[in-house]
Amino acid sequence: MTRDPRRAGPKFGGAVRCVPAADVLARKERFDAVINLAGTPLVGLPWTRACKRVLLQSRFTPIHDLLRFVSRAQNRPRVWLQASAISYHG
Question: 0.70 cut: is pTM over it?
Fold first, then answer.
């Protein structure tokens, strides 16, 4: 899942399928793993209440969408990798 499937796809050399949302996936689709690294970039954002809400939603919404897909999938992935960062180290 990515905000921009056309831009993300070539970064993986065609080895992955990029979709904008989990609800476009059919029940019969099969995945070995779910790797979720979703989240709005943090660099340069002010730490306002509104910004914090956006940051949290950008991480939790994809998790819930992926969980809904996995719960209805005929073949559940064997691996779930979840990561989220709150800072950037150059």
Answer: yes
